[in-house]
Amino acid sequence: MWVFGYGSLVWKVGFPYRRKLNGYIMGYVRRFYQSSEDHRGVPGKPGLVVTLLPSSNPKDRVWGVAYEIAKEDEEMVTVQLDHREKDGYNKILVTFCPANNLLTDCENNKSGNLDPFELVIYVGLDTNPWFCGPLSTEEMARRIVNARGKSGSNQEYLYNLANSMRDIAPDEEDEHLFSLEAAVQELECVPQSTDTFSRNSA
């Protein structure tokens, strides 16, 4: 079994896996449109975490990390992820393109070192009760800068995700993600560096 992480699973795994691959899925966009009243906020003061929305452009890409789960760990990891993603997320199958394949290889299902393959992702559909989009960048930034949950501050989540995407796909420009990062930094009145936030933090 393979699972794709595009939010906190990118830097905070929390389960055993055999190997991981950087890469992307196509036809989706990543958005901070999912309320979080547990991990990155509390009831009455929810934070925001990411979900995926189908894109009108089939060539849009969302980068992240795919994890291969050993057969003997599948049941345990599934139970753990179902609980972790319990607030409005559903499992769906999508095609994952490993980073060592060019875009044209994935589109035509031609072989690089690894072919595209199906895997599981957790998505907060726009019909779930925690979906709150679309929101303006300013409104998202105000919510994020003031939110904290049992897994830490909402800013930490945002900054870890932005830094992870710079590492995984340095040539990709995720306008939604990086514009939101800049807006939160402006509200905090801090330098543009986010080095104080560790990718290994809870």
Would you mind describing this structure in some detail?
- It is a single chain.
- With 202 residues, the protein is α+β, with helices and mostly antiparallel strands.
- It is 27% helix and 29% strand.
- It has a single domain (2-188), classed as Gamma-glutamyl cyclotransferase-like (Hypothetical upf0131 protein ytfp, Roll), CATH 3.10.490.
- A five-stranded antiparallel β-sheet has the order 1-5-2-6-7, with no helix packed on it. It has a two-stranded antiparallel ribbon with strand order 3-4.
- The longest helix is centred in the C-terminal third of the chain and has 15 residues, at 154-168.
- The radius of gyration is 16 Å and the shape is globular.
- Mean pLDDT is 88; it is low at 102-106 and 192-202.
Concise synopsis of the structure shown:
GO terms for molecular function: glutathione specific gamma-glutamylcyclotransferase activity. By secondary structure, this protein is an alpha+beta fold.
**Overall number of strands:** 9
How far from one another are the termini? 25 Å
User: Helix content range of the residues, please?
Assistant: 25-40%
CATH fold label: Hypothetical upf0131 protein ytfp
Question: How many strands, which pairing sense, and closed or not: the largest β-sheet?
Answer: 5 strands, antiparallel
Strand order of the largest sheet: 1-5-2-6-7
Look at the structure and give the CATH class: Alpha Beta
How many separate domains make up the residues? 1
What gross morphology would you assign? globular
How do the SSEs run, as a string of H and E?
A: EEEEEHEHEHEEHH
Radius of gyration, rounded? 16 Å
